[in-house]
Amino acid sequence: MLTLTPNAAQVIKDLTAQQNAEASGIRISSQGDGQGSLVLSMATAPEPTDEVVEAEGARVYLDPVAASVLDDKSLDADTDGEGGVAFHVTG
After folding, report:
1. 70 near 35, Cβ under 8 Å?
2. Which of 8, 2, 1 is nearest to 57 (CA)?
3. Which of 3, 4, 24, 46 has CB atoms 3.0–4.6 Å from 55's, for a disulfide?
4. Rounded CA separation 71/91 (Å)
5. pLDDT mean for each 10 residues of the chain (91 residues)
6. 20, 26, 44, 59 from 39: Cα distances, Å
7. Closest to 40 (Cα-Cα) out of 91, 7, 88
8. How many whole angstroms separate alpha carbon 47 and alpha carbon 45?
9. CA 41/CA 43 separation, integer angstroms
10. What is the pLDDT of residue 20?
């Protein structure tokens, strides 16, 4: 199962705090047929087939393909001085 670093959990909580939905989080989903094409977006709730990863109050929703691809990975995040966010997957 995908794990979240403390940095990633904090960034996700900061991003989702701006939404008014109790179950808000980020969603990672597959795009097209290639397993290397994943898209990250904001979500107010998981889709029915999503795997839900929760850590330190942060939620990540993974569609079945993304859950399979990221099964043994860790999600990290960095912010720059201007508030930009970059997510990184590490193995």
Report:
1. no
2. 8
3. 4
4. 10
5. 96 87 90 75 95 96 95 94 89 88
6. 22, 10, 16, 16
7. 88
8. 7
9. 6
10. 74
How far is 40 from 30, CA to CA, in rounded Å?
9
CA gap 84, 20 in Å, rounded:
21
Q: Dihedral (C-alpha) 60, 7, 2, 61: value to the nearest 10 degrees?
A: 10
Structure tokens at 10: 């904090």
Nearest alpha-carbon partner for 67 in 42, 35, 24, 20:
35
Q: pTM for the whole thing?
A: 0.89
End-to-end CA gap in the chain: 12
Task: Quickly list H helices, the chain.
Answer: 6-16, 64-69
Tokens describing residue 87 = 């997510």
Query: CB-based burial of residue 17 (10 Å sphere; 0-12 exposed, 13-18 middle, 19+ buried)?
Result: exposed
Give me the count of residues in the chain.
91
